[in-house]
């Protein structure tokens, strides 16, 4: 991507895609953006802003925004991400002009990297305040939605991946690494050899097909016998065991090494396979009550 490409150009793409009615038009506009504004050597800077939910290195609590934009905390539940972005834009509209501050895509990514690596609340709030000064309300609305990982563009990540490269989704599913996908698949005309799953690297589990209700699911069995088991409600964790090395990947592809102290030795001793991937729910067992603890106890 040209280092001088303005974030306002990407905002125009977001606005156009949000207003457009058909997926085909959205995909076409996205492709034109890649061809006109992005260099093959640096697709990642743009793609990570279009697919923020797949960027595992960035996470910022919503509560930081109130102090950074000068909004007082309201005595009610925090609104959903999309609504919060609109509220933030409304507050900022009264404090910012309508003209853009000239923020580039590269500068925004640098700001967001600093925000993600900030060591304390004051540092993160200062970074957000600087962003407010360099943008208008419309641009800041989209930045808020990027940080909250919820753009609401009406286009699936599957469509974005396919328009970028026919093999992009498959490669991401076995690597969960957006930067790697952007670097390996620079040439859309060149197909990528299917990559195997690697123990020690997060992989996307295949999900069951969604149906409307239990009746619809039952019809799919056509009268065949089924086995029903209790669904435990814990933290979805993907355990990778490679000899004595154990990783704990969340559904957001983060490696929760904090589980290692209590769990790794048990897994190494009891899982006979030398190399394997286990996908399931991580629960806490209450030794006093002799039952599983409530959902969320893993974080306590």
Automatic annotation (TrEMBL):
One of its GO terms (biological process) is double-strand break repair via nonhomologous end joining. InterPro entries: DNA_ligase_ATP-dep_cent (IPR012310), DNA_ligase_ATP-dep_CS (IPR016059), DNA_ligase_ATP-dep_N (IPR012308), DNA_ligase_N_sf (IPR036599), LIG4 (IPR029710). The keyword Nucleotide-binding applies. Residues 6-165 form the DNA ligase ATP-dependent N-terminal domain. Residues 205-298 form the ATP-dependent DNA ligase family profile domain. One of its GO terms (molecular function) is DNA ligase (ATP) activity. Keywords: ATP-binding, Ligase, Nucleotide-binding, Nucleus. Gene3D superfamilies: DNA ligase, ATP-dependent, N-terminal domain, DNA ligase/mRNA capping enzyme. The keyword Protein biosynthesis does not apply. It comes from the Eukaryota. Pfam families: DNA_ligase_A_M, DNA_ligase_A_N. One of its GO terms (cellular component) is DNA ligase IV complex. Belongs to the ATP-dependent DNA ligase family. This is ATP-dependent DNA ligase family profile domain-containing protein. The lineage of its organism: Eukaryota, Viridiplantae, Streptophyta, Embryophyta, Tracheophyta.
């Amino acid at each position: 991507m040209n280092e001088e490409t303005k974030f306002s150009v990407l905002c125009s793409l977001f606005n156009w895609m949000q207003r457009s009615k058909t997926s085909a038009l959205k995909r076409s506009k996205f492709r034109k953006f890649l061809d006109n504004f992005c260099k093959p050597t640096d697709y990642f800077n743009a793609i990570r802003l279009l697919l923020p939910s797949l960027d595992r290195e960035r996470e910022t609590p919503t509560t930081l925004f109130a102090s950074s934009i000068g909004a007082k905390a309201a005595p009610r539940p925090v609104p959903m991400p999309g609504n919060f972005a609109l509220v933030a834009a409304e507050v900022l509209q009264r404090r910012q002009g309508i003209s853009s501050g000239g923020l580039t895509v590269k500068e925004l990514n640098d700001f967001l990297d600093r925000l993600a690596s900030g060591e304390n609340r004051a540092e993160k709030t200062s970074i957000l305040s600087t962003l407010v000064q360099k943008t208008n309300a419309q641009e800041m609305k989209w930045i808020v939605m990027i940080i909250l990982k919820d753009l609401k563009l009406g286009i699936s990540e599957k469509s974005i991946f396919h328009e970028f490269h026919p093999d992009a989704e498959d490669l991401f599913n076995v690597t969960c690494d957006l930067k790697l996908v952007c670097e390996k698949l620079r040439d859309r005309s060149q197909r990528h050899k299917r990559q195997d799953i690697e123990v020690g690297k997060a992989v996307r589990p295949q999900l069951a097909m969604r149906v409307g209700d239990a009746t619809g699911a039952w019809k799919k069995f056509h009268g065949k016998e089924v086995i029903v088991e209790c669904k435990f409600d814990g933290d979805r964790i993907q355990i990778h065991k490679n000899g004595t090395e154990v990783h704990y990947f969340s559904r957001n592809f983060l490696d929760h090494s904090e589980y290692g102290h209590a769990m790794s030795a048990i897994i190494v001793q009891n899982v006979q396979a030398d190399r394997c991937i286990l996908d399931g729910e991580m629960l806490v067992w209450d030794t006093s009550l002799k039952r599983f603890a409530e959902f969320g106890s893993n974080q306590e």
